[in-house]
Write a structure and sequence with these properties.
VMP1 protein; mainly alpha; transmembrane helix; membrane; 75% helix; transmembrane
Length: 406
């Protein structure tokens, strides 16, 4: 693997030397032109050029739909098999019989798992800026289950309505029966499905770099170009960011499976570079995806889950609320909404929503709902901008091709 990478790097260095010797004309002018084109693409934003951005977005959407349709047509045997399987499952779903109880159970579990896998993919797929679904969805879900478990002294929440709404069970809980492991087990499915989704979202950089290496093409991808520049200037890198990226690249390249596992098991904003590195050095798919899946869906998720559960345990929350009240001047005014919110949640957990609950909406809940709306809207806007810029890149590449043929 390393020898193939060395040969490829030597060929690229040879091409660069030829370029400096004059075999390619005006390389500096070409790089300057590409830099200007990139700046021009980055200015295609919905709030700067709304009409152009929307036009490019719809045109890029049509092109993608056309490409996907062609790919599906070339794989029509797989598509036909999928449609037949779907038809059988649909018939099983609607035909009455004793199997319906199992069908309903599988339906509920399937959609619940698909929901969290989808949120995980949105968090790391690389479209736009990514949607931080752990902070917006999974973290609050684990926190609410933790608070309810300590309040009810049980995790036997009745279904339904859980997970739509958590309500304490009717039976009297046993004192001291709740444990940290019981809460971890209660949210393990959701957390692991979310982690699996984030692992799936890391595949595009891997496939992009692998396809570029096998085809010998030079993809117009900023992260891949940054990776190649880092390889060329590896020995002269001085700043911390470059050294960190180089350390990730060396770890993944030299250690292999366990290096990928180590990078995936900790919160690592440079993990996209690990995917590009694995694709560039032709690491086998199951080595990359297997290590990524274990690291993100098992190890990393248990670390994050444990942190949230400990943070929102009953005594920690009470201490945090009391510390807020100790802030000079503004402490009591800040402490009051937190106390009201916690009291309202306790009452809801015990079916006492009509007794003593403040009629007005708590401002913490209101702020969180608005934050979710803002984040989702920003994510959608970033996707529109990203697809519009992709179409602008198509136009620029078409212009380059036309100029070369003249």
């Amino acid at each position: 693997m390393a020898e193939n990478g060395t040969d490829c790097d030597q060929r690229r260095i040879g091409m660069i030397k030829e370029q400096h010797n004059g075999n390619f004309t005006d390389s500096s002018l070409l790089s300057e032109r590409k830099r200007r084109d990139r700046e021009e693409r980055l200015n295609i934003l919905l709030w700067r050029q709304p009409l152009v951005t929307l036009q490019y977005f719809f045109l890029e959407t049509l092109i993608n739909l056309k490409e996907w349709t062609i790919k599906l047509w070339h794989r029509r045997s797989i598509l036909v098999s999928f449609l037949l399987t779907l038809a059988v499952l649909t018939a099983t779903y609607y035909i009455e019989g004793t199997h319906q109880q199992y069908v309903r159970y599988m339906e509920k579990k399937f959609f619940w798992c698909a929901y969290w896998v989808g949120l995980g993919i949105l968090s790391s797929v690389g479209l736009g800026t990514g949607l931080h679904t752990f902070l917006l969805y999974l973290g609050p879900h684990i926190a609410s289950v933790t608070l309810a478990a300590y309040e009810c002294n049980s995790v036997n929440f009745p279904e339904p309505p859980y997970p739509d709404q958590i309500i304490c069970p009717d039976e009297e809980p046993t004192e001291g029966s709740i444990s940290l492991w019981a809460i971890i087990s209660k949210v393990r499915l959701e957390a692991c499905m979310w982690g699996a989704g984030t692992a799936i979202g890391e595949l595009p950089p891997y496939f992009m770099a692998r396809a570029a290496r096998l085809s010998g093409a030079e993809p117009d991808d900023e992260e891949y170009q940054e990776f190649e520049e880092m390889l060329e200037h590896a020995e002269t890198a001085q700043d911390f960011a470059s050294r960190a990226k180089l350390a990730v690249q060396n770890l993944v390249q030299k250690v292999g499976f366990f290096g990928i596992l180590a990078c995936a098991s900790i919160p690592n904003p440079l993990f996209d570079l690990a995917g590009i590195t694995c694709g560039h050095f032709l690491v086998p798919f199951w080595t990359f995806f297997g290590a990524t899946l274990i690291g993100k869906a098992v190890i990393k998720m248990h670390i994050q889950k444990l942190f949230v559960i400990v943070t929102f345990s009953k005594h920690i929350v009470e201490q945090m609320v009391s510390l807020i009240g100790a802030i000079p001047s503004i402490g009591p005014s800040l402490q009051k909404p937190f106390q009201e919110y916690l009291e309202a949640q306790r009452i809801k957990l015990h079916h006492k929503s009509d007794s003593g609950v403040p009629q007005g909406e708590n401002w913490l809940s209101w702020m969180f709902e608005k934050l979710v709306i803002v984040m989702v809207c920003y994510f959608i806007l970033s996707i529109i901008n990203s697809m519009a810029q992709s179409y602008a890149k198509r136009l620029q590449q078409k212009m380059y091709s036309e100029e070369k043929t003249k």
